[in-house]
Amino acid sequence: MTRPRNDNFLRALLKEPTDHTPLWLMRQAGRYLPEYCETRKRAGSFLNLCKNPGLACEVTLQPLARYKLDAAILFSDILTVPDAMGLGLYFAEGEGPKFERPLREEWAIRDLAVPDPYTHLKYVMDGVSEIRRALNNSVPLIGFSGSPYTLSCYMVEGGSSDDYRNVKTMIYDRPDLMHHILSVTADSVTSYLNAQIESGAQAVMIFDSWGGGLSAAAYQEFSLQYMQRIVDGLIKEKDGQRIPSIVFTKGGGLWLESIAAIGCDAVGLDWTIDIGEARRRVGDKVALQGNLDPNVLFASPDKIAAEAKKVLDSYGAGNTGHVFNLGHGISQFTPPDHVTALVETVHGYSKELRAKAV
Fold first, then answer.
1. Exactly one of 27, 32, 132, 164 is catalytic; which is it?
2. DSSP string, 328-345
3. Which residues contact 358 (CB under 8 A, 6 or more apart)?
4. Which whole-number Å values give the CA distances from 7 to 17, 159, 241, 288, 345, in the listed order?
C-alpha cells in the first residue's frame, strides 16, 4: 500500500513536513449540503443512510467534490456500536437519537457483550471498503468511533441529556456498574476501529463529546483511562504504513497534557483553547487538530478568512504537526460557499507562511 497522492493529512498527524496545512471538517458530510439532503431523502431515514454502504459512500464523497479537502471521513454515526450491542437505536423526529432499552438494570449491564464488527457492523466495514475504492488513493480515509464514556452517556440515559443525571448517579453510587459498561464498550470500540483499519481506514479518531462535563478526577477514571486502553490496542501499522490516531475531548483543554500522554498521535481541540498555548503545553509530543469556532462560518467570507488566519498565526512557525479543523461539528445552517472561503484561506495562507519561513 502506498500513501494517497495527497498525503498532507497523514504527514501532519505524524509531524512530518507538509506543503500546506491540511484541512478537513468534523461532520463535513451533512445537512448543510443540499446534495446530502437529497441523498438522505432517497434513503428514507438517517439510519437507512448509515446502513447502506453505497449511499454512505455517496455522501462521504460529496464534500470532496465541492471542496479541496485533505481527507475524507467515513459517514456513519457513533451510536452504531451500542446499537450492535442490542440496545435498539432509533431516531425520533425532532428529538435526536434514542435507545429502546437503556442500561438501567444491573442484569442488563452484566449481560452487555462485545459485538463482532464483521457480523453486527458489517455494513460499516462494507462502507469503508467501498469508500476506499471510490477515493482511488486521492486522499486518506478517516475511521472513527465515539469514546466509551460518550457512548455510555447515551446507553444509560437512553438518549441525549441536559444533565446526565442517570450516568453521574451511577458513577457515584455504583461505579462498579459504570466501569463494567465502560470496559465492555472500550473492548467493543477497539475491535470496531481495528476492523475499520483492516477494511481500509488510514487514520482513526475517537470522539469524546461529553467527557468535558466530568470533574477532573472523574475524567481520568471514567473517560481518559478507557481511551488510553483503546489507543494501546489499536493496529499501529497496516501494509507498511503507520495508522495514526486522534483523540478529541470537547471541553478537554484543562487536561491537554494528560490526553497527549496516552499514546495517540494527535489531540483534537475545541475552540475554547488557544492553539498556540496548546502547542506550548504539549511541545512536540503530539500533533494538534483544530480549532476554529464553527459559528465563524456564519460570518462573511472576509471575516472567515481573518479568523482562520488567526488560528494559523497562533499555531506559529513551522510546517509540521497541525491539521486545521473546526472546534466541533459544522452546523447544518452553514452556507456552503462559506466553507469554500475557509478552505481557500487555510490552503493559501498556510503556503504563504511556509514561504516566509524559508
1. 27
2. SPPPTT--HHHHHHHHHH
3. none
4. 11, 37, 12, 17, 19
How crowded is residue 176: how many other Cβ atoms within 10 Å of its Cβ? Answer: 10
Q: Catalytic residue at 154?
A: yes
pLDDT interval class at 96 (50, 70, 90)? confident
Is 354 one of the annotated active-site residues of the chain? no
| Residue 89: strand pairing partners | 99
Print burial letters for 79-89: b (CB count within 10 Å at least 16), e (below 16): bbbbbbbbbeb
- CA-to-CA distance for 191 and 181, rounded, in angstroms? 15
The pLDDT-based confidence of 93 (bands split at 50, 70, 90) is confident
- How far is the C-alpha of 32 from the C-alpha of 305, rounded, in Å? 19
Quick check: is 27 catalytic?
A: yes
Q: What is the pLDDT of residues 264-283, one digit of tens each?
A: 999 999 999 999 999 999 99
CA nearest to 329, candidates 91, 63, 87: 63
What's the pLDDT at 1? 60
Cell of 73: 471521513
Place of cell 489499536: 234
Helix (H, G, I), strand (E, B) or coil at 241: strand
State the catalytic residue, choosing from 3, 40, 104, 354: 40
Residues 78/145, Cβ–Cβ less than 8 Å: yes
- Which pairing describes strands 245-249 and 266-268: parallel, antiparallel, or unpaired? parallel
* Spatial separation of the C-alpha atoms in residues 231 and 27, rounded to whole Å: 22
31 as an active site residue: the answer is yes
Cα–Cα distance, 97 to 7 (Å, whole number): 35
- The active-site residue, picked from 36, 67, 149, 154, is 154
Catalytic position from the list 7, 70, 77, 126: 77
Q: Is 162 a catalytic residue?
A: no
* Cβ(203)–Cβ(243) below 8 Å: yes
pTM given for the model: 0.97
User: What are the angstrom distances between the C-alpha of 125 and each of 51, 54, 132, 201, 252?
Assistant: 10, 12, 11, 9, 30
